[in-house]
Amino acid sequence: MEPTPFYALIPDRIWDGQADSVQTGLAVVIQDQDIDALLPVEELPSDLMRVALPDCTLIPGLMDAHVHYSSVMGPAFLAAGVTTIRDVGNDLNWILAQRTRHASDLSAGPSIMCCGHLHDGPDVFWPHMGRAHAHPDDLRASIRKHAAAGVDAIKLYAGLDLELLKAGIDEAHQAGKFVIAHLGSPSAEDAVRAGLDEFEHLSGCDVAWREASQEEDDAMINLLLAHQVVINPTLVVWDRLGRILDRSFHHDARRVWAHPCHRDIWDRYRSRFGPPEDRWRHQGPMVHLKRFLRRAYERGVTIALGTDTPFPHLVPGMSVHDELCMYVDAGIPPMDALRAATSVNAKVLGIDGRTGMIKPGLLADLAAIRGNPLEQIGDISEVVCTVRAGRRFEPSELLRAVQDTFDQIPDGAITQDLLEYIGGDR
């Protein structure tokens, strides 16, 4: 759909990303890339183009704060109402080029924030996404290079010991960069004390992965609150890895949005063919992860939302809907789950001054949802249209754009690494 420089969206309901209730009887006026005004419908100029959205709730565009991006994913994210992603591990130069491409071509996909390479330890696990570092000086030099290249954050990975982790956090902070980590041997407690800003997957957080008392949970939560550390649970990736043999995923109609190469990777992922213990170690802890998430939420820990797309059965964009549903299943009210995917994610990513809410002066990044996901979170999958920086997109046109890529080999380090992984090359 061609961009329209000045028009109004008229949904039944508007939720601005922060308020405790929806508003009715209002229209969102969009001019060029920005939200110009929120006006009562009866006050709209008579000659203004109007787009009616009956039985829809208009919300800020969703954000996925944990993605490994591939060139074939962009339209699927938009179709799911996702207008911003944070890539947390990719080839540095490639993802910077993708970030630039998406900034100039709105149809390419969501706005991209990025970390560049994973900064790993001496033995790099994902050789295309990651870089090996055996000494603190090597790690510091790599982080300086990434910061100078203009990444939005620094990602530290599971092979770093505590000495390397501390060096990486210190160097990133000296460069003014936010630091996230997938923890390996260092505990979450040690990483928090070392100054980590956000940790992914609840990695290294022992109490979250086992039966624990409220006192044990609170000790960890007290530490998170004292240091203002963000958690990004990505429950959905652990769920999918634990249930990788579940046949229901093969009947998921949303698979049409995933590239055939990635679907083949999912069907040949190594844990499908390993002993059941490989899957049980993800199935068993799910109730504990949800318990810890609910207690962290109740205590006021900042909770971001990400997915780890495109690991098995994580359809780009649509997996955000699944993660939202898992947050609600953990006991987080739908409105607060949606805040995690919109205004909270925007603040965590440092872009709350330009997106994440429906507010005059901010970018017109919006999603129109049939129904009311603030009451029934499952409605979030009923995306009628997505607005990215003022330009409207509808799922039907985006599906054609996705399917046009199916004869291409997906570009991006994640595909290379996953193909080598399932092939047993390492």
Alpha-beta classification: alpha/beta
Quick one: how many beta strands? 16
Q: Radius of gyration, Cα only, in angstroms?
A: 21 Å
Mean pLDDT equals 96
Termini gap: 44 Å
The CATH topology of the largest domain comes to TIM Barrel
The H/E string reads EEEEEHEHEEEHEHEHEHEHHHHHHEEEHH
Structural domain tally: 2
What is the CATH domain class of the largest domain? Alpha Beta
What is the count of helical runs? Answer: 14
Order of strands in the sheet with most strands = 3-2-1-4-14-15-16
> What is the name of the CATH architecture of the largest domain?
Alpha-Beta Barrel
Shape category: globular
How much helix, percentage-wise, in residues?
25-40%
- Relative strand content: 15-25%
> What summary fits the major beta sheet?
7 strands, mixed
List the uncertain runs.
none
CATH superfamily of the largest domain: Metal-dependent hydrolases
Describe the structure in your own words.
This protein folds into two domains: 1-60 and 358-393, Roll (Urease, subunit C, domain 1); 62-355, Metal-dependent hydrolases (TIM Barrel), CATH 3.20.20. It is built from 14 helices and 16 strands. The radius of gyration is 21 Å and the shape is globular. It has 426 residues and is an alpha/beta fold. Helix 7 (235-242) runs antiparallel to helix 9. The strands form four sheets. A seven-stranded mixed beta sheet has the order 3-2-1-4-14-15-16. It has helices at residues 74-79, 92-104, 136-149, 162-174, 188-193, 214-227, 235-242, 260-267, 276-283, 286-299, 318-329, 334-349, 395-403, 413-422, and strands spanning 6-14, 26-31, 34-40, 49-60, 62-67, 82-87, 111-114, 118-119, 130-131, 153-156, 178-181, 198-200, 230-232, 366-370, 383-388, 391-393.
